[in-house]
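Components:
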Amino acid sequence: MPPRRSVSVRSILAAIAAAAIAATAAVAAGAAELRGTGDLGVVIERAKGRVQIVDTTARTSLGVVDGLGDLSHASVVYSRDGRYAYVFGRDGGLTKVDLLERRIAKRVMQAGNSIGGAVSQNGRIIAAQNYTPGGIKLFDAVTLELLADIPAAPGPDGQPSKVVGLADAPGQRFVASLFDVGEIWIVDASDPRQPGVRRFRDAGRQPYDGLVTPDGRWYLAGLFGEDGLALVDLWNPDRGVRKVLPGYGRGEEKLPVYKMPHLRGWAIAGGYAWLPAIGRHEVLVVDTRDWREVARVPVAGQPVFVIARPDARQVWVNFAFPDNAQVQVIDAESRKVVSTLAPGRAVLHLEFTPRGEEVWISARDDHRVVVVDTASLKTLATLPADSPSGIFFTSRAARMGF
Amino acid sequence: MIAVRHAVLCVALVAVAAVAPVSRGSGAGPTPAVPVAADADPAPARQRELLELLKQDCGSCHGMRLTGGLGPALTPEALRTKPAESLAATIVYGRTGTAMPPWRRFVSEAEAHWLVARMLNGATDATSP
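Structure:
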C-alpha cells in the first residue's frame, strides 16, 4: 500500500505542475488577457476551411482558426454571451469556435450537406438547416449533443426537401421554408427533445430564403418559383400564409439568376422592408404596416444582400455574378442610389459594425476585406484574407432572427 | 427493382434531352456569339477562367467542391449515368422550371462540352488544368 500511495501523490503533483504549465501557456498566448467580445467577429476564408477572428475596434485580424471543413457556403450564429461562434459548413460540419481562446471548442458532422442555422431565443439550442438529408436538427448549444432530428417532407424525387430560411422566433420557436415542396414550418422547441411542428402547405413555389423581422412578429419567405413573397404572422399563425407583392415581375420574363439572394432581418428598416427582386435589377420597398409595395429602386444588378445600416438611414446592396464587383448605397429617404463603390472583385458579403459607422466588405477574388466609413465612404483599412466570403460580428448575438 | 429504377432514369434523361432543344428555340436570348470549335480545347488561360467559373459561380448552387447545394452534385459519381450532350445543353440553355440558368452569355457550346468532360473525369481543379 505505501508504495502505491507515494505513486498517487507523485501523479497528483505532476498533474498540478501540468495545469500550472498549461495556465502559463494560456497566459503567454494572450488567452487570459481580460477582454469582452462585443467588437469581435469572424471572416470566413471559404477555400481554406478556416476563419479569421477580427477586432472591429482595432480594424485588425487577431488570428486564424483552421480545420472547419468545406466552407464554400458558410454561415454563423453566436452564443448569447458573444464568446462562441457556431459555424455551419457546406459539408454538414457544425463547429463551435471560441473567439477568446481562438480555437475549436467542439465540432460535429451533423449532415451531408448543410446551408446554415439559428440559435434559439434563450441561447440554449442550435438549429441546423440541411439539404442532405433535408431537414432540421436541434443541438444542445453547450455540448452540441443532438436533441432532435426533424426530417423535411419529401419532394418530387422522394428525398426530404431541402430546408432554407431557418430563423429563430420568440417562444423558443424556429421557422423555416422547404424549397422543394413549397412549405413553411414553425418548430416549437420549448421541449427540444420533443419538438412540435406546424406545417403551412402551399406557401409558395420554391422558397429560397426567409427572415424573421427584428420585432419577432413576421416571417417572410422569398420565392424563386413565382413573383412574390410568403408572409406568416407569428402572433396569429392561425391566419395562415399571405402573399406579399404577388406578381411583382408584371409577367415580364425574368433575367437568369446566377446567385440566390439572401434574406435576414437586416432588410427591415424604418418601417420598410428592402427586398431583392428575383431576376430583376431592382430593390423592392414594402411598407411593413400593410405589406404593400411603395417603391422600386433600380440598381446595378441582381441584388444578393440588401442590408440596412443599423440606423436605417442607408441601405447597402451587393450583386450576383456578373455584376459583383460593385456595391451600391441607397439613401433610405429619397429611395435613390447615391453612391456606387468598387471595393474589389467578387464582393460576396458586407457586415456593419454594431452601430453602423463602418462596414466591412469581402472581395473574394482580390483576397481582401475592406473597411469603409459609411458617412464619408472612405476606405479606412484593408485586411488580407484568402477568398473571403461571409463576415459575422458578435453583435448578431443579441439580434432576433440572426 | 433495378430495372424499374433504370427505366425511370431513362425516362428522366429523355425528358432532359427533350427540354433542351425546346428552350434552344425559344428565343429567350441572343444566340451564342462565340464560334463553336468542336474539337479544339479552349486556350490554357481560358481553361483556367472556365474552371474558376465552375468552382466559384456554378459553385454558388452546386458547392465549391461540386458536392451539391441548392443544385445537385456535379461529381463524377453523380454525373456518371447522364449523357454528356444533355449536360452540356443544360449548361448552355439552363433547365426550365428549375433554378438552373442558361450560361450561354458566358460559356460557348464547345466550352460547355470541355467543362462536362472535365467534370466527368473529376479534373476540375483550376490550379492544375
